[in-house]
């Protein structure tokens, strides 16, 4: 009987953790990012609870889009860091240029993560080669996030997005709206799996921009990603 009680307690605790996660998740998708900043500033332990729940969801997915992003960005980095060819007078090869990687989240849980709202990044304009949103377009102000990424990207730089397919009402309209921010869609992969959409945009170079880009329409939105009770 003792072990039955323990099992029932564990099941109740897990159900509670599940509904706590779903409540936080829904909040993050249905409010502007300023509210998310406030939420975790007032109660940082909610961030741990959110990520424990998110990890339980990821464990059930056929693929983890983060692995895809890491693989693709890693391969691009390797190409870019291809060492200079050795010569007789300079036999030691060196990377073509140093690489800096920035990670941003609402709460910093490791030294390499900068706590900030991605609506406003602590980066100079035209300074970044690649920007990645991996399931990170949460909040009702995704236009702010995308506009900010296009600001910090260098001309010709790459914007990568991985999102849950069911969040898109109209993929063509989404792509067209992001392009109005001053970029062109160069890759769209919804075929290799049914759950996630992978998009890649290239920011216009100075020569390609005839005038100031129109800007992403303020009405652009994605549906919230609501997880079902299991
Ligand atoms: C669904 S999780 C995905 C985490 C990770 N990118 C992955 O793919 O495993 C979304 C993450 O975006 C963060 N986030 C949401 N809105 C944000 C904002 N306005 N500024 C910074 N980070 C934000 C959340 O705190 C959370 O860590």
Q: What is the number of helical segments per DSSP (H or I, 4+ residues)?
A: 6
Strand order of the largest sheet: 3-4-6-5
Query: If you average the pLDDT, what whole number results?
Result: 91
CATH architectural type of the largest domain: 3-Layer(aba) Sandwich
The tally of strands reads 6
Structural class: alpha/beta
As a percent range, the share of helical residues equals 25-40%
Cα Rg: 21 Å
Oligomeric state of the chains in view: single chain
Q: What spatial form do the alpha-carbon principal axes imply?
A: globular
Molecules bound to protein: S-adenosylmethionine
How many structural domains in the coordinates?
Answer: 2
Q: The CATH topology of the largest domain, please?
A: Rossmann fold
What characterizes the major β-sheet?
4 strands, mixed
Distance between the termini: 26 Å
Query: Uncertain runs with pLDDT below 50, 5 residues or more?
Result: none
CATH H-level superfamily of the largest domain:
Vaccinia Virus protein VP39
Order of H and E elements: HHHHEEEHEHEE
